[in-house]
Design goal:
With about 150 residues, this protein is an alpha+beta fold. The protein has two domains: about 90 residues, 3-Layer(bba) Sandwich (FAD/NAD(P)-binding domain); about 40 residues, no CATH class. It contains three helices and seven strands. The longest helix has 20 residues. It starts with a strand and ends in an 8-residue tail after the last helix. The model has no long low-confidence stretch (mean pLDDT about 85).
């Protein structure tokens, strides 16, 4: 059941929350075990460590790398979490073994303004300036192509 601030309620068996760039206060208020940033602690299958059967994805989930450090809450991580969770839900309802979630971080590029950026692609290629900005644009087009929206497909 989802309770809206208008007082209305929406009955649901499955609830998907999307939004924000950090853990949402709702995650803390719901009683999930969280880090200081409000991100829910999850196991190797993206399930809450404090609430069995609840998957946590995106900015509200604390996913640790092999060294015990958290992955940054980026779109590429959330995208991969979504794909993994879809498989987990399928296995939950149809049976089968789940594979642990291990994201493939392709790099990170940050815009610094008009036609300027800095970043790292792969494990070692560092870039800056116009080339980094072009790579940032390319990564956005890659994402849009994956969801079928590059040319405004409806």
């Amino acid at each position: 059941m989802v309770h809206l601030k208008t007082g209305d309620a929406i009955a649901a068996e499955t609830i998907v929350w999307t939004g924000g760039v950090r853990g949402n206060q709702l995650v803390i208020d719901a009683g999930f075990e969280t880090d200081p940033h409000g991100r829910a602690k999850v196991d190797a299958y993206l399930q809450s460590t404090s609430h069995s059967g609840v998957y946590m994805l995106g900015d509200c989930a604390l996913v640790l790398n092999e060294g015990g450090r958290p992955y940054p809450p980026t779109a590429q991580l959330a995208w991969q979490m979504g794909g993994a969770c879809g498989k987990y839900l399928y296995h939950d309802s149809h049976g089968g073994l789940k594979e642990e979630f291990h994201p493939e971080i392709l790099g990170s590029i940050a815009s610094l303004g008009r036609k300027d950026a800095v970043g790292k692609v792969g494990r070692s290629y560092k870039t800056r300036g116009r080339m980094a900005y072009i790579l940032k644009d390319a990564s956005q087009y890659r994402y849009l192509a994956k969801i079928g929206s590059v040319f405004g497909n409806k």
